[in-house]
Please model this.
Amino acid sequence: MSNAEIRVAVLGAGGRMGSEAVKAVQAAEDMELVAALRRGDSLDRITEAGATHVVDLTVPDSTEENVRFAVQHGLHAVVGTTGWDGERLQRLEQELAQQPEVGVLIAPNFALGSVLASAFAATAARYFESAEIVELHHPNKVDAPSGTAVRTAELMAASRREHGVAPSPDATEKQIEGARGAVVEDIHVHAVRLRGLVAHQEVLLGSAGEQLTIRHDSFDRASFMPGVLLGLRTVGSRPGLTHGLDGYLDLGF
Amino acid sequence: MSNAEIRVAVLGAGGRMGSEAVKAVQAAEDMELVAALRRGDSLDRITEAGATHVVDLTVPDSTEENVRFAVQHGLHAVVGTTGWDGERLQRLEQELAQQPEVGVLIAPNFALGSVLASAFAATAARYFESAEIVELHHPNKVDAPSGTAVRTAELMAASRREHGVAPSPDATEKQIEGARGAVVEDIHVHAVRLRGLVAHQEVLLGSAGEQLTIRHDSFDRASFMPGVLLGLRTVGSRPGLTHGLDGYLDLGF
Amino acid sequence: MSNAEIRVAVLGAGGRMGSEAVKAVQAAEDMELVAALRRGDSLDRITEAGATHVVDLTVPDSTEENVRFAVQHGLHAVVGTTGWDGERLQRLEQELAQQPEVGVLIAPNFALGSVLASAFAATAARYFESAEIVELHHPNKVDAPSGTAVRTAELMAASRREHGVAPSPDATEKQIEGARGAVVEDIHVHAVRLRGLVAHQEVLLGSAGEQLTIRHDSFDRASFMPGVLLGLRTVGSRPGLTHGLDGYLDLGF
Amino acid sequence: MSNAEIRVAVLGAGGRMGSEAVKAVQAAEDMELVAALRRGDSLDRITEAGATHVVDLTVPDSTEENVRFAVQHGLHAVVGTTGWDGERLQRLEQELAQQPEVGVLIAPNFALGSVLASAFAATAARYFESAEIVELHHPNKVDAPSGTAVRTAELMAASRREHGVAPSPDATEKQIEGARGAVVEDIHVHAVRLRGLVAHQEVLLGSAGEQLTIRHDSFDRASFMPGVLLGLRTVGSRPGLTHGLDGYLDLGF
Model:
């Protein structure tokens, strides 16, 4: 395995996502795990270990410095940490301009199924008269609807607006408060909280005589790992900054 | 067929439900349709035709007079018309006391599947930590949630309260208004409106590691007819007033 | 409405699909129904009425002659009739070569949701470890699985093969005959037959920790009309032969 | 907690189910865990610890001896181990005849949702024209369909037979082998195997115009613990042998 072309350093290896990534990289036949850094470890260990790729699954406070280090040393980076606002992204683009062969993927969501479901929902939304979303999560979640559901609704609404699709028909005159859900840019979004569940989303599209349903179930953090590995395998051939794993998926038909 | 024991007069035969009932009775091998009355027809036609049973699918204004006529003439009645408030029911009970062999069924819902789904939901609700309802209807519906969903929630809540089950856990701190649905006696109820749908209801029950879902789909008015026929076949052996088709279902295990 | 640019002749107007098409064209604001032909009517009525577009919803025996007539007279054609084998298609291509501005769409399926569901399934299949199909239909259907399910399985299998995806894992050693369904090119396909249903299909994709489900429900023939109208609106700008409505859908992301 | 009336000894505490039971009993406010025995531990530890109840989650080879020990010492027993054939049950009944106050529950399934789903399916099956089952499991399962699905089908078929319900209609003339699933006493059962899943079952019931679906999802072994606790809380008041957790559920309406 020492000749693997993808030599990976995992940053944030002590966290929940990071420790899964360590296992996933170790299990991948075409990769070698050369370093696993925890909070406080020196970044120099990355280069000393001869890494070619970095996976950053740390915290918003340190992710920018980690990625800059990788880019400056010519390493490709796959980033799952949040906190990349406009300013940070701009600085990163400037760094990348100096290293035209380096690729960076920043992805808010590594679950392939979730990324595909959002893309399909956005594509299909303009072809149906009605569109709503039901998301279902464990009852410890503090926000409703989920961030993923809000983003999916925004993508669907934008596509419908752009193609002149009228808002979903709705004759409701009398409702118990909240019955019709939250309204995110004309898309009604319903949030179910149920013990036993993890993270689930159902996009419902309807026209006269037919319904299309796109559902994604996330049962376990393990679902993020195929996306992380796909990122690692692809990032080296995609110089510059890519935002969202869908940029690496082959969604043309 | 002239020896059928169940000789049926359909009242309201010109309406949507009534015309379905006419067809259903004609197709039933153990029944004979002896009269089909429309608005304005004299009730005497019922007795002249030798009916033993009456199906009332008329309007709130005339249903009481129709049923009283049936009871006074010793005929069993299956009633799907709404508008039976406490006063009317009391007067009916008094009539029935004079005719101890006559049975009357007043049922707000003849869809067997829907009646079963409500009964199962009420039974199961106390065994799970979390309970919510999602109902889905065509977009021309004016009220949300549906009356059936509200009644189901009330039945579930009553059973949970009676057995000391705590409210469903919910850590929501931050929500877009309406995201968590309408709250009907501690049960969250979500109403989806989608072109292409008719009338659907999903009861979701969850505990650590498991989920039970009870879903009923009503695609067509035809779904009410098996319940009407079951009512006609049973009402003759159940003297007095029965409220709700579940009174005729064998739900003991 | 006499200035509508899309002046439509419906062929097969006496059939079930044709009569729906007549209503759909009449209801469309940007179209005018100029002729509705039934079996035996002369095709000359199409040109006499000044049609610019033809919808062919007839029978395999007459569809080729109908479409040839349209092409030769410079009219665009949307075709839902089956029976277009390789030879017929070849002859049609030759006709079209003589009329470089004419467009013809031959579509085996006009339900937008069904076409989208198949396309999404084919796209997603290569990203998951496991893939199966459950199709559900009314119990009068004579073949199992449905043609749509077989075609969807073939598309999914082809994509998985092309990208080197291993067959879905399956440790089954002991089964009651038929339990694991029909095997269509490595994809297991299960056919449910249930009174009350029309035509439904569920594509199930799974990897460690996640599931993606793409479900299409067809409740009514009305579901084909948006696809017919989309065909009519698009065919004039797509010269030559297009096979499958997906050729007109914007599926790039 | 030392005054808890339910003083529990868990047998098989080193196994997967047993270790979950240890945690569940410890977390229950009305119980006390007084002993946790592993393979090879002396049964005397149960009585020395002052247990009032025993949970047996061991192996077929030792379960009979364990339960006999409990009964002979006047302790109530909740048993999840398999292997209780007719002979063993008969010997157990004889033991119990000597100890008229002792209760024993032998349950093949402790997931409340699953037990309820089976009971509801059996109750509802006779009211619908069509009935089928789809079960879905992880791909490491060796048998298809699952034992639970076979038992559910048998219960449903028995109820339909008893009430003279005709077999589900099915016009299939031409099928790819296996498409219509396994046939268990006239009920078609389909087995899906998908990475990411655990254990799921969907009972589909249909009549003209309506569908009733009863679905149970088992995501995690944790789902068995509420049933084990319910068993422990109830077994003391139900002398003699009870087979199946449904005997303790309040399923009358």
Summary: Helices of chain B lie at 16-27, 44-48, 60-72, 86-98, 112-124, 147-162, 225-235. The interface with chain C takes residues 196, 198, 217, 219-220, 223 of chain B (CB under 8 Å). Chain B is about 35% helix and 25% strand. Chain B has two domains: 6-106+222-248, 112-219.
